[in-house]
Amino acid sequence: MRRSFVLSLPLLALAVAALVAGDDRKDKGGPARSPSSDKGEGSKGVPFFDVVAFLDAYDKDKDGSLSKDELPERFHHNWDKLDTNKDGKLGRDELEKGVFYLQPRRRPSDVVFFLVEMSDADEECAEELQIIYSFLRKLDTKNDGKIHPEALHAAREGLVNKRVDALFKHMDADKDGKIGRAEARGRVKEHFDELDTNKDGYVDRKELTRAAGEKPPKLPPVKGTTLPKKKPGDEPDKR
User: Last residue of a domain, which of 82, 102, 122?
Assistant: First the structure.
């Protein structure tokens, strides 16, 4: 049972929008992301990344390849993965095969940057950011300017319990502390048998809370693409 079954995730929708709208934040001095390469297609399953333009923009000595000094510093941690023949330079073929290592690693936190950058109504945007800011301040339980894992865990439990409380208030008509099949509504009714793990004909608070806390299943990879696996020691891309 996916957590999204119980938890609404409006920020996730905004984060996805940020991924679609983003263009690697128009890297300073970097190539424009063209909708086609010299062959009229994106490189190796990655749409809108022009390897030819990338190579042309950073190949300072125009030898048809990139040395480590020519490669933008934000990709240096992927050098060994890109330089597959270990000759100390990246040719076009290596860039095409390693194109996924040249993509920005989007993060859920990008939603904040998206709100600030894309807002055309500052008053409304400020209101949304204030909600985020106020919630993050509550997570700083030690007042040290940091969010610690234990505070995040407690906040997650609090949010889940709050939503479960709301569901029971809405559905538990006879106030017996459990939701019968006739009382169930919406997704609870749709997945009633799955939620009723002890098969007693009711969904109790423990069953609903457990479902709300389950992690969503991993999405299958997009057909025609192969994402690189993150290995221990990999450093995140720097802004």
Answer: 102
- Say how many domains are in the chain: 2
Question: What pLDDT, on a 0 to 100 scale, did the predictor assign at position 9?
Answer: 38
Where do runs of H (alpha helix) occur along 76-204? 79-82, 92-97, 110-118, 122-139, 149-171, 186-190, 192-195
| Claim: this prediction has a pTM higher than 0.85 | no
Domain boundary residue among 74, 102, 130? Answer: 102
Cα-based distances in Å from 37 to 26, 46, 72, 93, 203: 18, 11, 20, 14, 55
Strands (E) located in the chain: 178-180, 202-204
d(CA 58, CA 21): 25
Please give the average per-residue pLDDT across 32-58, as a whole number: 62
CATH code where residue 91 lies: 1.10.238
Same domain, 184 and 94: no
For residue 230, what pLDDT is reported? Answer: 53
Domain of 54 in residue numbering reads as 26-102
pLDDT at 232: 52
pLDDT, tens only, 180-194:
999 999 999 999 999
User: Phi and psi at residue 210, in whole multiples of 5°?
Assistant: -60, -45
Question: Could you tell me if residue 233 is inside a domain?
Answer: no
